[in-house]
Amino acid sequence: MKLPRLFLLRGRFWAGFLPWAWLLLFFTLPFALIVDVSLSSPELSVPPYVSPLSLGPDGQLHWSPDATPYRRLRDELGALAQPGADRPYLAAWGNSLGLAALTTAVCLVIGYPFAYQIARSAEVSRQTLLMLVMLPFWTSFLLRVYAWMSLLDSSEVGLINQALLAAGWIEEPLPLLYNSGAVLVGMVYSYLPFMVLPLYAHLVKLDNRLLEAARDLGARPAVIFLSITLPLSWRGIVAGSMMVFIPAVGEFVIPDLLGGGDVMMIGRRIWDDFGPNQDWPMAAAVAVVMVLLLIGPIMLLRRHGRAAPGSLR
Amino acid sequence: MNRGWGGRSWLLIVFVFLYLPITCLLVFSFTGGEITTRLDGVSLRWYRALLDDDELKRALGLSLTLGALAATAAVIVGSAAAVVLARFGAYPGSRLFAGLSTAPMVLPEVVIGLSLVLLFTHPLLPWLGGRGVVAIWTAHTTLSAAYVAVLVQSRLLEMDRWLEEAALDLGCPPLKVFFVITVPVIAPALAAGWLLSFTLSMDDFVLAAMLSDPGSTTLPVLVFSRLHHGLKPEINALATVVVTVVSIAVIAAHRLMLSAQRRRMQAVAAARRQIG
Question: What average pLDDT does this structure show over B212-224?
Answer without folding.
Answer: 90
